[in-house]
Amino acid sequence: MGISIEASSPESPFAQLRDQIRRQVLSGELTPGTRLPTVRALATDLGLAANTVARAYRELEGLGMIETRGRAGSFVSGEGAERAAREAAHAFVDQLRSLGVECDRAIALVRRAYGG
User: Fold this and answer.
1) Distance between CA atoms of 76 and 30, rounded to whole angstroms?
2) How many CB atoms sit inside 10 A of residue 75's CB?
3) How many angstroms separate the first and last alpha carbons of the chain?
4) CB neighbours (10 Å) of residue 21?
5) pLDDT score recorded for residue 12
6) Class of domain 13-113
7) pLDDT grade, residue 89 (50/70/90)?
8) What is the pLDDT of residue 1?
9) Can you name the residues that pair with 76 across neighbouring β-strands?
10) What is the CB neighbour count within 10 angstroms for residue 53?
11) pLDDT tens digit string along 31-64?
12) Would the CA dihedral through 102, 107, 108, 113 be positive or negative?
């Protein structure tokens, strides 16, 4: 999963964990359906209290980024990433409109950014 907690960071371990998982979901590094480590296993791996990991998972679940399926574990949800992508698209369109960029040009810019 590639998560590291920096003890010297001004950001709390909980916030670091939550934000790193969120970024990985939004970037597609963690895809919908990916099973996350158990709270206990991730806490042990990162040297954190289980409650810290549980809190991060609860917040991510509240954001729609992950879903907990009882004893089956926690999984990346498609809902949160989809919602974040829609929000990013709306923000992108708003900014391009303010710059006077037409729809066809905006689509061409997106295609180029995706490498296609």
Assistant:
1) 7
2) 16
3) 28
4) 25
5) 96
6) mainly alpha
7) confident
8) 79
9) 66
10) 27
11) 889 999 999 999 999 999 999 999 999 999 998 8
12) positive
Question: What pLDDT is attached to residue 52?
Answer: 97
AA letter at 21: I
Residue 42: which residues within 8 A CB-CB, separation 6 or more?
1, 3, 36, 48, 53
- Domain boundary assignment for the chain: 13-113
> Any idea how long the chain is?
116
Kindly give, in sequence order, each residue whose CB lies less than 8 Å from that of residue 32, ignoring residues fewer than 6 positions away.
75, 76, 77, 78, 81
Listing DSSP states for 52-112 in one string gives: HHHHHHHHHHHTTSEEE-GGG-EEE-HHHHHHHHHHHHHHHHHHHHHHT--HHHHHHHHHH
User: Shortest CA distance to 38 belongs to which of 13, 70, 79?
Assistant: 70
- For the record, the structure tokens of 9 come out as 């960071």
Average pLDDT over residues 12-26: 94
pLDDT value for 81: 66
